[in-house]
Amino acid sequence: MNRYCVALRNPMDSECHVRVGEFPTSEKAFQLAELIALELDAEAPARWSGWTVEVRSIGGQRLFATAVGGEPHSSPAQVQG
Question: Is 79 inside any structural domain?
Answer without folding.
Answer: no
